[in-house]
Amino acid sequence: MSSTPDAHTDPFTPPQPEQARAHRVYASLLRIAERHAATDEQRHRQVHASLIGPHEAIRLVAFLLSGAAQPDDGEPDVDHADITAALSLVPLVRAEIDELETGLLQMARGRGMTWQEIAFGLGLGTPQAARQRYERLASRAAADAGDPK
């Protein structure tokens, strides 16, 4: 049986959760862009004028390496030191994402969202999985906060 756009209505075709999640990711980006990044001013709220953020630096190196972005005339090629620098930023970005996710989960709960709704948004199968994820992130953040560096 071939896959068609209406395959989800066919009772004999199993659902494809990964395809549904990919569609939801695209729809999520579109929704946020339309509602909160429709103007240049709105899009530049998170951009520092003179320094790129760690996630932007990683993305830039990855795009240049993959050919998704082309270097400007006279711009040096990405070298091993650039790749090492980008890799060095990954733990920082991961920690920032964990912190953002923890805060977003706390705000979602504060706004009355259920663990089931949160699980759906995260692509998790059960409310328990969402709650456990939050607890892991929160305990990691607490451990990092108490860690004298």
Structural overview:
The structure is a single chain. This protein is an all-alpha fold and 149 residues long. It is built from 6 helices and no strands. The chain has helices at residues 17-36, 40-43, 54-66, 80-110, 115-122, 127-146. Helix 3 (54-66) packs across helix 4 (80-110). The chain is globular, with a radius of gyration of 20 Å. The mean pLDDT is 86.
Oligomer: single chain
Mean of pLDDT:
86
- Distance from N terminus to C terminus (CA atoms, Å) equals 58 Å
Helix percentage range: 55-70%
Largest sheet: none
Individual helix count: 6
In terms of DSSP E residues, the strand content is: under 5%
Shape from CA axes? Answer: globular
Total DSSP E strands: 0
Regions with little confidence, pLDDT below 50 for 5+ residues: none
Order of helices and strands: HHHHHH
Category from helices, strands and their pairing: mainly alpha
Rg is 20 Å
Region (Disordered): 1-20
Organism: Sinosporangium album
Protein name: DNA-binding protein
